[in-house]
Amino acid sequence: MTPTATDAVGTQAVGTQAHETVEDVIVEDVLVEDVSIDGMCGVY
Amino acid sequence: MTATLLDEFELGLDAPICLTWELTYACNLACTHCLSSSGRRDPRELTTEECKSLIDEFERMQIFYVNIGGGEPTVRSDFWELVDYATAHHVGVKFSTNGVKITPEIATRLAASDYVDVQISIDGATAEVNDAVRGPGSFATAIRAMEHLAAAGMKNFKISVVMTRHNIGQLDAFKAIADRYDAQLRITRLRPAGRGASVWNELHPLPEQQRALYDWLVGNGEKVLTGDSFFHLGAYGDALPGLNLCGAGRVVCLVDPVGDVYACPFAIHEQFLAGNIRGSGGFTTVWRDSELFAELRSPQTGGACTKCSSYDVCRGGCMAAKFFTGLPLDGPDPECVKGHGEPFLASVAAGSTPVPSPDHSRTGRSNLVPITIGRRPDRACDTSPLA
Amino acid sequence: MSPEREASGFDLDGAWEIHPSVAVRPERFGALLYHFGTRRLSFLKTPMLLDAVQRLSSSATARAALSDSGVTPAETPTYQRALAGLAATDMIRERTAS
Predict the structure, then answer these.
(1) What are C32-87's pLDDT values in tens digits?
(2) Residue numbers in B near C46 (CB within 8 A)
(3) What is this structure's pTM?
(4) Which residue has the higher pLDDT, B374 or B141?
(5) Which of B293, C4, C7, C86 lies 20 to 30 Å from B370, alpha-carbon distance?
(6) Which of C23, C37, C43 is the closest to B5 by Cβ?
C-alpha cells in the first residue's frame, strides 16, 4: 500500500512550497510515466 | 515519494481504463477453445436501451475505450447502432470479430472512423491449422474480411491470434499476413477458460515453445501487440514491454451479455463474479463497491512465489490460468517457465478442477469438463480433433 | 539556468495545447492521459502537473501555465522536463498560430 521505494526521491505531491534541499532539486523527480497499452492483461 | 504507475494500478482505480464487453453469447462459429463458451444467445441479454445506459455510465466514468466481443458481436442487429452511440459519447471502441459481417460497405465505414478499431481473429496462418480450432471456412471468412478492410484503406486494424501448440511455428507467417494487409499483429495467451479448459492439455504451448515464443517476441516483437498477456514469460530474462500486471478487477474487467460483471473475460466463473449491472447502482457501484474487487485491490501475497528471483517480473502469472487448473492463486502459474508449477499440478486430484460456467455452447458441442492434469502428451504433434 | 538547459528542446516560451486525440482523466494521484492515436497511456504524478497541462491551451506560454498553477521557480525544471516528456510522446503539441 505504501509506495515502493524508488531511487527517485523528490518533491512530494501538490502544494509543497517549502523547500527541500538543493539536493532534491538536482535529483531527478520524474513526474510523468508512460506506457504502451494494448488492452492490458484481462482484456481481449 | 511518488508511486509508480504499477503501484497505483494494483490498488485499483475509481474507473477502469478500458474493459471487455461481451455483447452476446451468440456466435456463428464454435471454436474449440472459446473463452466464453459461446454459441447460443442467452434470452436474458441486455436490451438496446440497457446497453445505451451502460455506455452512458462508461462515459460518466471516463473509461477510455471498450473492447467489444462475445460470441460474435456483429450478429446483434443493434451492433452498429451501439458502436455509433459509444463513439458519440466519448467512449472509444475496439471490437473483436471473426469477420463474418465485414462487408466492403462496413469496411468503408470503419476506415472512416478514428475511434473504432477492429480486431480479426485467426488461430492459424493457414486454413489447415486455423480451421482445426475455429471450424471449416473460418480462415477464408477472416481473410476476406481483411481484404475488405485493406481495400477500404483501413490502416492498422488488428489481427489477433491465440498462441497454441500448433501455431507457435507460424509466428513469422502471421507477421507476414499482417504486413500484407497493412494491419498490426496481436498475439495473446491461451487460458484454460471456457471451452479452453476442455482442450488445454492438447493446445497449450510446450515449455520449449514458450521459450521460442519469448525469443521471438524479444527479437521481432517491437510492433507486435500482446494484450500484456505474456508477462509470465518475463522470467526467462527481461520483462517484455507493456504493463506486466494482472489488471483484473483493478484497471479492467468484463461485462457479459446478461450484465454480469466478472474480474476478467478469462475468469467467467462464479468465484470471479462481482455483481450485475442491472442492480440498483448499475455498473459504477459494482466497480467501486463489490467485495470481490475490494479483495483483488488489497495487497496480494505472492505466497509460494515470493522467494523466487523472478517474482518481480512475472508476479505469479495469471489468476485465471491458476484457477482453472486447480492451482492455488497465491502460487506459481501452471506454465511457470521455471517449472515451479509442476509439483502443484501433480498434486491436483483428477476431476477436481473448477468447471467453467456458464456454458452457452450450442447443442452437440462437447460439454465443458474439468481439466485433467497429469496427462502430458509425449509429442508436440498430438492434435485435438474438432469434435 | 543549467537545469533549464537540461530540459532544453522544450520551448517554455512557446504556446502549447493538449493534442486533440488525447483524453484526460483526473485521478487521486494526478491524472491519466490516453492518446487514441498512439494508444499510449501517460500518468501524471501530481495534481499540479495536471492543472498546468490543462491550462496550456489558454495560456500565452507554457511558462505562464506553470506559474499560474503554482509551480515555483525552483520546481520549474522538473515540470519543464515533464512537459518535454509529454511533447515527446505527442500528448501535447505546439499551438499553430491562428
Answers:
(1) 999 988 888 999 999 999 999 999 999 999 999 999 999 999 999 999 999 999 99
(2) 2
(3) 0.87
(4) B141
(5) B293
(6) C43
Q: In angstroms, rounded to a whole number, what is the distance separating the alpha carbons of residues C70 and B305?
A: 45
Best residue in C21, C24, C32, C91 for a mutation probing chain B (most B CBs within 10 Å):
C32
For residue B53, the tally of other CB atoms under 10 A from its CB is: 15
| CB pair distance less than 8 Å for B243 and A40 | yes
ipTM: 0.86
Residues in chain B, how many? 387
Res. C2: pLDDT tops 50: no
Which amino acid belongs to residue B211? R
DSSP-based three-state secondary structure for B93: strand
Contact B20 A5 (CB under 8 A): no
Cβ atoms A40, B250 nearer than 8 A: no
For residue B119, the one-letter residue type is Q
Of B277, B276, B271, B321, which Cα lies nearest the Cα of B296? B271
pLDDT at res. A38: 81
Burial of B280 (0-12, 13-18, 19+ CB in 10 A): exposed
- The distance of C33 to chain A (nearest Cα, Å) reads 9
Of B319, B301, B294, residue with least CA distance to B12: B294
Reported as a single tens digit per residue, the pLDDT across B202-246 is: 999 999 999 999 999 999 988 899 998 999 999 999 888 888 888
Q: How far is B255 from chain A (nearest CA, A)?
A: 11
